[in-house]
Amino acid sequence: MSELFGKKNRLSRIFNKSGKSIMLALDHGMALGPMQGIERPGEVLKKLTPYTDSIMLNKGILQNCYVPDGHVGIVLRISGAATIVGEDLTRESITTTVTEALRLSADAVATSIYVGTPNEHSTIRELSLLCDECETYGLPVLAVTAIGKDRERKTDPRYLALAVRVAAEMGADIIKTYYCDENFEKVVEASAGVPIVIAGGPKMDSVLDVLKIAENAVKAGALGVDMGRNVWQHEKPVEMLLALKEVVNEGINAEEAYSKHFGRK
Ligand code: 5RP
């Protein structure tokens, strides 16, 4: 049997039969506390996991609040140890062992790299070493890419592409990036074939805009979304997931999915 079997099998629990993933991100509390929408994570998981392919969260919420039913892929975040009130939100490092992730039946582990910050060296190095360790167990690694504080850089495809390529070079199996309106296909291309999923960022005023970025990202080659706030801070999170599913998995356009689940504009 191929030595890649474990990795392939785990990835098949994250990416559905269409090869895409609606990943629900619920890892925010580790740095931001009980923010609006995830005050009661157990209720959020119970309500929303039937509509997702995979979930991304930390070990405490996974163990205490998730009732396993075997149908969602589990992406366990294993980096953190910095908070919004601390000195530097980017001063993350690995917080959990690979053994612990395996004990918790993770299908992938996630760690952040902070490109363009004083912590880029340590976070990139940790990603690389984590990829080596996880290779032994066939455990995929999701790299969460982030670009410093400079607002313009965060939406500049050149910087996003840089962070994505760095993650691919270090051996990531899935890469999360932010979406940008211009040249997003260049960001996807930078991954050299490693699957890309996009974060949603802060809650947007318009549902249609959320669906449109998902549509455009997939058209540019992304394989899914890894979204949090635009789902669980929305008053209709189930409808949001259903609409995202149609856009991402079935290629239905954003306007159509919007009218179906949210009525006319
Ligand atoms: C932050 C994260 C979040 O999971 C990610 O940003 C996705 O959530 P959102 O859609 O709310 O941005 O990894 O480091």
- Distance from N terminus to C terminus (CA atoms, Å) equals 53 Å
Content of β-strand: 15-25%
* Uncertain residue segments: none
Q: What do the pLDDT scores average to?
A: 96
Count of helical stretches: 13
Number of strands: 10
**Share of residues in helices:** 40-55%
Which structural category fits the helices and strands? Answer: alpha/beta
Bound molecules: ribulose-5-phosphate
Biggest β-sheet description: 8 strands, parallel, barrel
Shape: globular
Q: Which H/E pattern describes the elements?
A: HEHHEHEEEHEHEHHEHEHEHHH
Strand order, biggest sheet?
A: 1-2-3-6-7-8-9-10
Instruction: Give me the Rg, rounded.
Output: 17 Å
Any chance you could write out the topology, listing elements then pairs?
Elements: H1 5-14, E1 21-25, H2 29-32, H3 41-48, E2 54-57, H4 59-65, E3 73-77, E4 79-80, E5 93-94, H5 98-103, E6 108-115, H6 120-137, E7 141-147, H7 151-154, H8 157-170, E8 174-177, H9 184-189, E9 196-198, H10 207-219, E10 224-227, H11 229-232, H12 237-250, H13 254-262
Parallel strand pairs: 1-2, 1-10, 2-3, 3-6, 6-7, 7-8, 8-9, 9-10
Antiparallel strand pairs: 4-5
Helix pairs in contact: 6-8, 10-12, 10-13, 12-13
The structure holds ribulose-5-phosphate.
